[in-house]
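Blackboard transcription, Thursday session:
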Amino acid sequence: MISLSDLRQFKADGRKFSCLTCYDASMAKAMEIAEIDSILIGDSLGMSIQGRDSTLPVTVEDMAYHTAAVRRGNQHAFIMTDLPFMSYATLNDALQSSKTVMQAGAQMVKMEGGAWLAETVEVLTRNGIPVCVHLGLTPQSVHVFGGYKLQARTREAADKLIADCQAVVDAGAALLLLECVPAQLGQEISALFPHIPVIGIGAGADTDGQVLVVQDMLGLTFGRVAKFVRNFMKEQSGETAILDAFKAYHAAVQDGSFPAREQTFQVEL
Ligand code: KIV
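(Written on the board underneath:)
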């Protein structure tokens, strides 16, 4: 089973790692066969599994249920689980929510935010819970952003995001996830923290790992699809098409062909 130390070693070795969201045991098994390095049980399940229009209604119990299912199906990948909306608003909430998802099988929790999470990160880490902080476009704050938009488009905003990263890393964050930011910023942040693996989604080709929502990369998202998504199913056929799409994704992340320039945001900072 891949551990956090393995992800750190991948970064040290310059070996890019693949991550996909997953919510059930059979997809998790297919990802195990395809040797996907890490799995995120994302609160995107609110949309992709529950049919809601945002991640806000998702509960800690939902996250634990899907985490346990994925862990039963996959003994290979590093597993991290989202703490859903308002489940880490206080230190006690964060501890209780993390306890629930870690006992369900997560190896790490993920929280959306910035410097304001520093104390929470420190307390969780002290209690043996590794933390990933998700920065940039953070979907739980969609109503603050007023939509799903590119973040940190100016030098000033990029520097503020770097300061947020620094604060949570100083507090003990073991992994960073950057969503929907200029490729240049993804590169800068990945280079700034040599011991902290950085996963990107719409953050350019230079982050240490890449993540996509599984329904997006299988072409199962109907309606608007983000610029940073590539449909890996299009290139497959036959009864092993899903498995082959996962294998193609893993290979494309490792050889650096995903994301290509057209899946990244090129903004000069
Ligand atoms: O919930 C999720 O799927 C996520 C990804 C978009 C990174 O947080």
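Lecturer's comment: The domain at 4-263 is CATH 3.20.20.60 (TIM Barrel).
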